[in-house]
Amino acid sequence: MAGILSTFTMFAQTQHHGITVHADQVLHTNSPYLTGACIEDVNHEIYGGIDSQMIFGESFAEPAAQLPLKGFKTYDGLWTLADDGSVQGVGSDGSKIVWDGSALSADEVSVDVMLTQAAGGNGGLILKVSDAGKSSDAFTGYEVSLERPGFLVLGRHRQNWEPIRRVPCDVPVNEWIKLTVRMTTNSFEVFVNGKSMAQFEDTEHPLETGTVGLRIWQHKVLFRNFSVGMAKVRQIIPFEYDAENSSADSVSGMWRPIRQGTAKGSFSLESSGAFSGHQSQQITFASGSGAIGIENQGLNRWGMNFVKGKKYEGYLWARARSVTKLFVALESKDGATVYAEKALKLKAGGWQRLDFTLEPNAADTAGQFAIKLRQPGAVALGYAFLQTGSWGRFKDLPVRKDVAEGLINQGVTLLRYGGSMVNDPEYRWKKMIGPRAQRPPYEGQWYPYASDGWAIFDFLNFCEAARIVGIPDLDINESPQDIADLMDYLNGAPAFGARSASPTVIPRRII
Q1: Closest CA to 156 of 173, 138, 142
Q2: Which of 112, 202, 273, 285 has its CA 20 to 30 A from that of 327?
Q3: Four-way CATH pick for 255-390: 2.60.120.260, 3.30.1360.120, 2.120.10.30, 1.10.10.60
Q4: How deeply is 268 buried, as exposed, middle or buried, from its count of CB atoms within 10 A (0-12, 13-18, 19+)?
Q5: Residue 156 to residues 101, 123, 142, 202, Cα–Cα distance (Å)
Q6: CB atoms within 10 A of CB 101
Q7: For 72-245, which CATH class?
Q8: pLDDT tens across 196-221, in order?
Q9: Contact in structure between 219 and 93 (CB atoms under 8 Å)
């Protein structure tokens, strides 16, 4: 029997196998719609990306730049105090505050954590922190976070993200959870509501000492009862504003105040009669000479790109109690050089749209847009818009030409619009019609002051112009009647539905 098997094995080993390809015989073809992509506002693919709007914070929806927290250094995000002494952190990717107290090695750190949103994201402690800076992973230290819908997340940062472990853990929404970590020089143990959930000994890259802090990821998180040390020598770290080192200017968060010459004035955020959303920006020139105003430097305040001799278009929605002259300008980032400026006359009364065109006399890759008063008076600002002229836009749509052509040159034939952003209650198609300035901002998935300035119908208009099939995502909680209305809006005659309310032609063949 052994001989038979041996012979069979030798015979099998001598066989040669091959595949013959008949390139002239086409059996099937691939659909042209296999070459697709998704676009949503994660990482500013829309606002700061394909949208032609150059201003970030156009609706003045962001609260005033926060007061500093005493005893902490803030790295990104918005951190505000509640009346009960807790602190709320709001940010997208890895916002953090770091305690500037003594470095710790073998000790205990504890904080109560409340995650406030049903969707994912996390928040918790960072330990043995050093070399901290702005941006997601700009620090060295350990991270111990609670994540919705139910995980304890352990990781190490060495100016990067090195996941250690994800432990299933009950993380209810809108409930306080006590998170405690006991550290040695090269290990730590994590307790959730007093129960030991994980232990880790770092044998590869132990971080022996550093300070502590709080970090959030794509979630609105509350913290309270922050402390370091064991029971008898525990130090409570209070959350309080550092009023002595703060500015009194109440300017919406993505803008900054301008004071020039001897001009004196003030800034406030007004909720009464706001243009859209919950607040508008008030500027008052009280006395002196020079200018009082505000400036915007675009996405993340990285600066706006101005091309010499090219036209830029924009408009403001503003109101004043008396006739007022406003000035808009394109400037260098420090405001020292004015590349283009225009005076706008505002009548007394309600909200008015003021259109303008500016043509810079020099190039600047990191400039700013300014709105100023040059004489005593007051003005409320509800919305600001700035984009390139038709030279920088795709087929005169509110679409950046370079981004649009990049998509087309990649050979994209199908584009999906949406993703996690559709989970938000305010993401509704009926709030995306009409002039973009009057679409209210909302608390979005990726940014708490999201705009509907570039939304479903702007997307569909772009897809039709680019000859790309567009597939928009819709919120699952849209009613059947809302969906029926959408189909009529897109495909029905203008007389039957709201389609004519849109500022541009809506495509008919997409859905």
Answers
A1: 142
A2: 273
A3: 2.60.120.260
A4: middle
A5: 21, 15, 4, 10
A6: 13
A7: mainly beta
A8: 999 999 999 999 999 999 999 989 99
A9: no
